[in-house]
Amino acid sequence: MVGGGVAGLSAAVTLGRALRTVLVVDSGEPRNAPADGVHGYLTREGMNPLALQAAGRIEAESYGATVVRAEAVSLRPTTNGFEVGLGDGRRVTGRRLLLTTGLADRLPNITGLQEQWGKGVVHCPYCHGYEIRHQQIGVLGTGPMSVHQTFLFRQWSDDITLFLNDTVAPTEDEMARLAARSVRVVEGVVESVDNETGLLTGVTLSDGTRFELQALAVATRMEARANLLEPLGLQVAEHPLGAGHFIEADPTGATSVDGVYVAGNISNLAAQVIVAAAEGTTAATAINAGLIEEETALAVRALRKPSPTGRKLT
What stretches of 137-272 show up as alpha helix (H) in DSSP? Predict the structure, then answer.
């Protein structure tokens, strides 16, 4: 499998416990690395994302999985499955391929925004809302989901400002609803995200007007890490809400290409860490079931082959 975050490692544990040979290829760059802690994951609340990943690797390896720290640079189908080319020149093969490469968050090109990502700049209210509760929170307009995001963050604070950023144009009804929830709406382009000694302090508009803030929420464009999939015949699909693009799959993680599965943010842009882990387990059980069917069919065919005497075995 390609991707060693919680989705890939959860799958590796499940397949290892099913006595399967498992190889996990991971470049060591999880999406949530900038965050201080994982939230919404039962019994792991606040755990550092890299520490969670390290614990997951140990657990997967305890069930016989091999975790390789390398970058996958190519994928291709073979007669008996799939081949993954690694950045160091090695090539590894397997009968099934599980992709848990996640997604990349594309941020607007605003001075200071990237530097505060995962710190003063957040995106998910369920991941970060509690930590910034009762603070001065701004919402940066980036697209059609920004108004919805504003209403969500209003649950955690009564001091919310929506910056339209010359990108969002709320309808009359939305403006009425924002006013009813005491949300300030500010027109104009956000030019910079300001900080002092590493802490977010506010935003400045292109006309020089400055607004003090303690946190800024941004709805990023989420794009599946799928740059290697073309040789497999897989294409990304645009999210119906315009949030980004993803790989389509059925509830088990099976894609349109036989033998290729996906789990986590590559196929579910909104999946939190605990959901991604569950999807990895679901895909692993589907993979194991498919291998059992394949192995059983081969055994039946072997049983029915003619014996050396020319008679069929029954």
Answer: 146-153, 172-180
pLDDT at 314: 47
User: Considering 218, 237, 272, which residue would you say is the last residue of a domain?
Assistant: 218
Residue 121 structural domain = 108-218
Neighbouring C-beta atoms of residue 48, cutoff 10 Å: 15
Calculate mean pLDDT across residues 121-132.
94
Q: What percent of the chain has pLDDT over 90?
A: 86
Position 243 confidence tier, pLDDT thresholds 50, 70, 90: confident
Write down the pLDDT at residue 309: 62
Weakest-pLDDT range from 37-46, 82-91, 167-176: 37-46
Q: Which residues of 89-116 are buried (b: 16+ CB within 10 A; e: fewer)?
A: eeebebbbbbbbbbbbbebbebebbeeb
In Å, how far are 1, 25, 31, 274, 291 from 70, measured between CA atoms?
12, 6, 16, 25, 26
Q: Does a structural domain hold residue 203?
A: yes
Hey, what are 314's tokens?
């029954």
Among candidate residues 218, 236, 253, the one where a domain is terminated: 218
d(CA 164, CA 241): 18
